[in-house]
Amino acid sequence: MDFWCLLLAIAIMAYIVAYTLLRDWVRARELRKLAKELGLSYGGRDWTTARLASKSPFVRARASWYYDMVSGNYQGHHVWVLDHREGFFTAGPARERAHDTCLVLEHEGSFPELSIRPRKRELVIDVMMPRLEEVEFESAEFSRSFRVATANRKFAYDVCHPRMMECLLGHRDLSVEFKGNSIAMVFQRHLGARDIPPRLNQLVEIRKLLPHYLFGGPSAGQG
């Protein structure tokens, strides 16, 4: 009896490993094809994410896990598509956050931390909110829809001007982070390959809506 139980356990483990490897191979192929279509580079799998840790607090929280990466120039901006996956045997509450896609756009500014997240879709792992100050806005609809937290209240008001709030209210599923020279959009699921270009367009739109003076020069905000 013990022999058959052991054999069954081995078979189940082999199935899980085979399924995971096949799933990851299919996903990597999709991202490689997407990168070619967009003129970007597929960087393969990064197990440490050390060189990406500064891109987003969300990425930094998963620094011990791994990503497939797509990066390059998109509409005049350097962007990253970070596709997070956990290991073979993720289970329980962790399964809810086991697969995420994070889009990152680099810019020439240097921003304090700012987090804009849908109130009814808080991220499972939250590394920013406990140490940031929540900000309310005159727009009751925006404040009901999004939770904004920042290390700099003035920066929050500079970013969340009426046109930006209108843009975000038109895309109420967006979670957006600002820090240093990066803007990140985080999704608690893998984006389909066909869904990534429209989301990159939204990220570029958010970048274009940022006031020029935040970048410290007369030419800031162009390109």
Describe this structure in words.
This protein has 223 residues and is an alpha+beta fold. It has one domain (2-215). The chain has six helices and seven strands. Strands 1, 2, 3, 4, 5, 6 and 7 form a seven-stranded antiparallel sheet that branches. The radius of gyration is 19 Å and the shape is elongated. The termini are far apart.
Q: How would you summarize this macromolecular structure in one to three sentences?
A:
The protein has 223 residues and is an alpha+beta fold. The chain has helices at residues 2-38, 57-61, 140-145, 153-159, 162-169, 196-209, and strands spanning 41-46, 66-74, 77-85, 99-118, 133-135, 146-150, 176-187. A hairpin with a 2-residue loop joins strand 2 and strand 3 (77-85).
Content of β-strand: 25-35%
Q: Helix tally?
A: 6
How many domains? The number is 1
Molecular shape: elongated
- Main sheet specs: 7 strands, antiparallel
Distance between the termini: 68 Å
Q: Based on DSSP secondary structure assignment, what is the total number of beta strands?
A: 7
What Rg do the Cα atoms give? 19 Å
Query: What is the helix/strand order?
Result: HEHEEEEHEHHEH
Q: What structural class is derived from the secondary structure elements?
A: alpha+beta
Helix content: 25-40%
| Poorly predicted regions | 87-98, 217-223
Average pLDDT reading = 78
